[in-house]
Amino acid sequence: MAIEAGDFKTGLTLLIDGDPWVVLDFMHVKPGKGAAILKTKMKNLKTGSTQERNFNASTKFDAAEIQKKNVQFSYKADTTYYFMDMETFDQYELDEEHIDFKKYFLVDGMEVQIVFWNGQVLDVAIPEKVELTIAETTPAIKGAPSSQTKDAVTDTGLSIRVPQFIEEGEKIIVFTADGKYSGRA
After folding, report:
1. Does residue 83 share a domain with residue 116?
2. Rounded CA gap, 124 and 68, in Å?
3. pTM score
4. What sign for the dihedral angle of Cα 55, 25, 100, 80?
5. In whole angstroms, what is the distance from residue 34 CA to residue 126 CA?
6. Which of 22, 144, 148, 159 shows the greatest Cβ crowding within 10 Å of its Cβ?
7. Distance CA 108, CA 126 (A)
8. Banded model confidence at residue 91, pLDDT cuts 50, 70, 90
9. Shared-domain flag, residues 71 and 48
10. CB-based contacts of 84: which residues, under 8 Å, 6+ apart?
11. Which of 8-12, 44-48, 88-92, 170-174 reaches the highest mean pLDDT?
12. What does the pLDDT read at residue 1?
């Protein structure tokens, strides 16, 4: 199925130079002279690299047939993360370099989605927010303003800034896009 650059949407997956790419952001630009162009920010799903590219609005691309499968995070051994399909009990492995920043949000038993292209595991799709436990932090400073934050480390190793009232052992909600504190669980 052919898709024109002028029809791009965030999250659209395309085949470019034989690799699957996902559109992260785009903007239509109409210069004073000539045809409209599309400025895009795209991520290569095979390599994980991000690029900014410009396309003529009438350029056509093929859609990348991406499949997603619900799986459960089982465990991590060395630098390999293991996931299990809850229906077939098949096991999938992903290296830490593919997981990247998402490793801080994976908790044993958590349900996520594995992204496939041509039978190859490309990525893990995690929820927008996750619940993590504070493993270590300093005690609250008496008399400190409630808007003041302090350093903390979660049970997954994520270093985060939290409000003064958060204590060790507390469960918090964290945004997975940037690793910032959202609220108490």
Report:
1. yes
2. 9
3. 0.74
4. negative
5. 41
6. 22
7. 13
8. very high
9. no
10. 71, 72, 74, 90, 91, 92
11. 170-174
12. 64
In percent, how much of the chain has pLDDT > 70?
Answer: 99
Q: CB within 8 A of 140, min separation 6: which ones? A: 150, 164, 165, 167
Q: What is the DSSP string of 98-148?
A: HHGGGGGG--TT-EEEEEEETTEEEEEE--SEEEEEEEEEPPPPTT--TT-
Number of domains in the chain: 3
For residues 77 and 55, state if they share a domain.
Answer: no
Of 63, 90, 114, at which residue does a domain stop?
63
Mean per-residue pLDDT over the chain, rounded: 88
Range of the domain at 143: 129-184
* CA distances to 4, 29, 88, 93, 108 from 71, in Å: 33, 40, 10, 11, 12
Q: Which of 75, 96, 125 is the last residue of a domain?
A: 125
